[in-house]
Request: fold
Amino acid sequence: MNRRDHLKTMLAGLVASIGFIPEANAEKTKQATPVKMPVLFVGHGSPMNAISDNPYTRHLQKLGKQLPTPHAIVVISAHWVRNDTRVMISAKPETIHDFGGFPQALFDMQYPAPGSPALGKQIQQLMAPVNVIGDAKWGLDHGAWTVLHHLYPKANIPVIQLSMNANLTLVQHMQVGAALQTLRQQGVLILGSGNIVHNIPMAQDRMASKPFEWAAAFDELTKEGLLHRNLGQLLATDKRQAQLWQLSHPTIEHYLPLLYTLGASNSTDKVSFPYEGFQEGAFSMRSVLFS
Reply:
């Protein structure tokens, strides 16, 4: 069975009327914890949020104190896209400053969280027979550490990242997220980091700029899609919305992490939005919590 065929079979239990993948087979995971972790998606926006004090960053700080303390964190970031699927297996991941033109204070920031080679290898086993490559070189990109800096400032929780395979369809990205469901029972927080609306060429100069009408419309449609478990909306099957999708995502990588968290959730999870708002008019900073 090739990789694409296997990914298709992973979604065999999808209930169309519900729109979420049922709880994964717990037999794959022997170790469990009393607390099942939620799944979290956050908009990360500009790297400047790492050193900014604003309503968005304050919500992250508050949220980090409200969530159960995870044993480990798996991040799916918009900034690690490959032509294959990779998982970090480094014990001491570097802080990657994958941006330019920002103040030196941002480049001086470090997030020295430990890695978890064991968790990386477990993910390889959960995804089998899909080939997931262990990557010892990749560190924490700014989609990960600028958010984690506010959520867990002590940087004492093991963190790894899972890459997004550029060759997959939207449905298949969600299926990969479904393979991570059992990790929640072990106290692992699955964190998607991107933006529900992300259009850099249309971004305004001021953080507090009013959102464009098309940006607000897409953000609201996505919110409704999540609340009503409408996969047609969330997987872009309505061709009448093609222009709205193109404006909101000239490239799709910032939307994809939401699909991983969608896949890692299930029909018993309550969907809530710890934060709603925009930055620079073209970046939705909405957070989504499945708990």
Summary: The longest strand covers residues 188-194. The chain has ten helices and twelve strands.
